[in-house]
Model the fold of this input.
Amino acid sequence: MKADPQPTISTAELQQAVEQAVRRLQQGGLVAIPTETVYGLAADASNEQAVRRIFSAKGRPADHPLIVHLAAPSIAEASEINRSDAWFKLIAPWVRDLPEEAMRLVEAFWPGPLTLVLKKDKHVLSAVTGGQDTIALRSPDHPVAQALLQEFGGGLAAPSANRFGKVSPTRAADVSAEFSDQADLLILDGGDCTVGIESTIVDLSSGAPVLLRPGAITPEQIEQKTGVRVLAAGARADADTSTPRVSGSLKAHYAPNTPLRLYAAGAALDCISQYPDTKSHVALVVWESEQMRDPHVLGASHIQQVPIPEQSDLFASRLYRLLRDLDDHTWDLIVMPEPPMGQEWDGVRDRLQRACFGSGPPVSNHVSS
Done:
């Protein structure tokens, strides 16, 4: 389960692959791109027909907004003007208001796994924003994605490169398997994603910053590094009317086809025993330090233990790969430990809770953990 490094690729090979991808994007096609979080299914954010191809390929609802990915300032740009002004120049065409707090977050965390929701400029396509007056922006921290964005010279709308509601891809092979019926899909292979879960999303479109989706960057880290205090979702008085819809906010999401359940500390076998109809083959995911050595403790040979790291960043980087690998086997049930409390675990806890709710065949999709 160790993450593979980015593939060894020569500068000439990378340039050739990027140029091919740029041509495809300019023609209105789709390209699967690597980022530090997950692989994205990218299209030219200024081409409405191309954007609609994303929704069609994924089976994504038309009112579910996309994140637009931007290039970081080039070395030349940053040397001509200060870095803050260079970022402002890149972001300004997409928004009609850029709060001072937003620029502090950009300067501290971009490029990186942080998405900012801001009031959109009038030229931004409604298809990108799900019909809302806000736009979600981020700059990915991945050399292949940045090389593509620099060469393309525009914004790329790019949700995760998987069927809507299913497990996000963190390897090029995952994308290929997900869209096996689309042989012409161009996939840029940038190795395994290092962060492994989607970006943190912060709303700065209506007053105080609010966390809309937890991720690798926590509110605590944001406040420590920038002094900007990010409120919890729903904390604003006008939350019901002003909170934008964002990617990954549906109750059922990131879901494997195999039923997935979470168990409290020390209650793994109790959790499994609640599902006697699926006891024949169970994947029991356990913390590395808590593997059960005695088969009699497990109570049955049909339960196979699968260790997972106890560090939040390693857990996150391996989560989707683990779910996909387990889903490829004939397990009847996957049970995983509930993540510990703490902001550093909120991202994976959020993904697992939504995955549980959406997991399994349609008849069991709405059985919560």
In short: The two ends are 25 Å apart (CA to CA). The first strand starts at residue 31 and ends at 33. The chain has 14 helices and 13 strands. Confidence is low (pLDDT under 50) at residues 1-5, 363-369.
